[in-house]
Amino acid sequence: MAENSPIIYQVESLFWSVETELAKRWALYNIPAIFASRPLIHLRVIVKSWWQLYHESRCARLGINRQIWERNQANPVVPLDTPALVASLEGVWRLIHLEDLSTFRPLSKAEEASMCLLALLIKFYSTTDREKWRHIL
Fold first, then answer.
1. Angle at 23 between CA 21 and CA 25, to 5 degrees
2. How many CB atoms lie within 10 A of CB 94?
């Protein structure tokens, strides 16, 4: 897959859409408490970490040199309701192939934490019983 393929643009759009929707929910306090008590930039850094992990693992899997370092801000942002946000977060999870990346280097503590936070967000928005998750949110 070429670095400028339509799939790359779709993936960039997915990441932008997730980041934009999470920022909206952060502003409305519809976010796990671990994010609500921190500035919005913290959430944006987490999404950037997912992007970096996606790209590094993709390049490791395909055996290519990394050429894309930043997301293209010109890609469209798709509004996401809660089911679409959950599906998009799960899509981000599926795009990151940690086993491919681990053949080249171990994850940093920050990268491990960002993946845990991705799992937390998926659970937070996919459960209807938020009280069940209260102790970890």
1. 70
2. 9
Separation between Cα atoms, residue 48 and residue 70, nearest integer Å = 9
Per residue in 97-110, pLDDT (tens digit) is 988 888 888 889 99
pLDDT band at 137; cut points 50, 70, 90: very low
To which residue do tokens 């936070």 refer? Answer: 117
CA gap 137, 129 in Å, rounded = 13
Q: CA 80, CA 93: separation in Å to the nearest integer?
A: 17
- What's the CA gap between 134 and 21, in Å, rounded? 22
First-last CA distance in the chain: 38
Q: Residue 11 carries which DSSP code?
A: H
Distance CA 1, CA 91 (A): 18
Mean pLDDT value of segment 29-56: 93
